[in-house]
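FAQ: What does a ligand-bound record look like?

Like this one, built around flavin-adenine dinucleotide:
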Amino acid sequence: MKLYEKKEACCGCGACGDICPVGAIHMVSDEEGFRYPEVDGKKCIHCGRCEQVCPIKGEKAGRGENLYFGVQAKDEALRRASSSGGMFPVLAEYVFRRQGVVYGAAFNEDMDVVHREAWNQEELEALKKTKYVQSNPAGVYRGIQEHLKEDRWVLFCGTPCQAHALRLFLKRPYPKLIVADLVCYGAPSPGVWASYVRYLERKSGGKMTQFCFRDKRNKDNGHVCAYVADGREQAHSLYGDVYCRMYFSNYIIRPSCHACRYCTVDRDSDFTIGDFWGLEKVRPDMEDGMGTSVVILHTKAAREIWEQVKEELNWFACKEEDVLQPRLKSPTEAAGGRKRFMSLYKILPFSIFRNAFTGIMFFRDLWRRVTNG
Ligand SMILES: Cc1cc2nc3c(=O)[nH]c(=O)nc-3n(C[C@H](O)[C@H](O)[C@H](O)COP(=O)(O)OP(=O)(O)OC[C@H]3O[C@@H](n4cnc5c(N)ncnc54)[C@H](O)[C@@H]3O)c2cc1C
Ligand code: SF4
Ligand code: SF4
Ligand code: SF4
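The answer part, i.e. the structure of the complex:
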């Protein structure tokens, strides 16, 4: 039994693995380094639950009564420690005040990105900031359901497909669940990321212990990458980082992301959070280079929570057209030759894979210059 017809029809949310009552589903990495479910036909009892939970097949939310805001956390340290304006940690604090639990993406000891829980500010640190790597949410849907059944407050923050999968997994609304999803450019390959980490570790001569994709030291809205390997910090521009260039040039994104259903303002979440692109046109007085979140409220529950947290924020209301960045309109297009490039990933060491990419970019830029006169 196969759960998806073609790669575009599986976003790797892992909800099918979490719901299977007999443990028949395992997530296995493919030759591009993305996880896909495999079903053990001997264990499967044909209950159909894995099909019901799949966000690619499930019905999506319709048009909600969306409200749009630009947001900066008043607490400057908190905003600096986040990728955009710090809306996520403000929601997390709301849940901690109610003795609840927060789920988000963090690096583990091998620098893989996994979803995990946090019960206090100290544990929240690892969940803050964007990780441009597809996260592994294994076990999280089940864990959230258990906490909700114990009548706890739960905040989940993740990609829109994970948020939709969570709704399908739970089947019914829970008044103490808050779901925040992100504006999402696409999920880069965890396999390519792992190879990049090992490459940097070899270059630095020691283990990597931190990586920040959106460091704000230059007050440029987080366009610096900084990492610590062998106890030493290295920093360079976001677009100077070869892994990030592969990502933003659309070579290492999951196939399903190029056909994503969630590149819209209508979501299966309470809140959508992203970077406020084009702030300088809407509110130039608020552009200080330290990050601003665009926040979309979708539900009545979100509007009620907003009333209780807005005192902690500098904010302004705006219109849908003020926030409509590309990823709220259509999916990221795959780079020409993406599939061929990714076929090199399993056969080449990262140092050569990297050189192949640099070569492709050189000829692509040259071609553009020649054809543009
Ligand atoms: C892969 C990816 C692509 C993105 N693309 C865009 C985009 O095109 N346009 C845009 O405006 N915003 C995008 N964002 C969202 C943006 O970068 C910020 O995450 C968002 O604005 C929240 O910032 P914050 O300051 O409120 O909180 P932060 O403290 O920065 O919190 C970030 C939140 O994102 C979660 N998170 C981090 N990495 C991942 C991951 N790999 N998978 C799932 N959840 C994760 C964390 O758990 C945390 O809850 C993207 C985020 C990710 C992870
Ligand atoms: S049909 Fe049921 S038993 Fe079979 S893989 Fe799906 S969830 Fe598991
Ligand atoms: S539930 Fe998620 S991981 Fe499973 S087949 Fe559907 S998209 Fe893929
Ligand atoms: S682009 Fe779409 S399919 Fe890909 S991770 Fe984001 S929400 Fe999921």
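Follow-up question: can I read anything off the structure? Yes, for example: Residues 19-20, 22, 24-25, 39, 44-50 surround iron/sulfur cluster (ligand 2) (CB under 6 Å).
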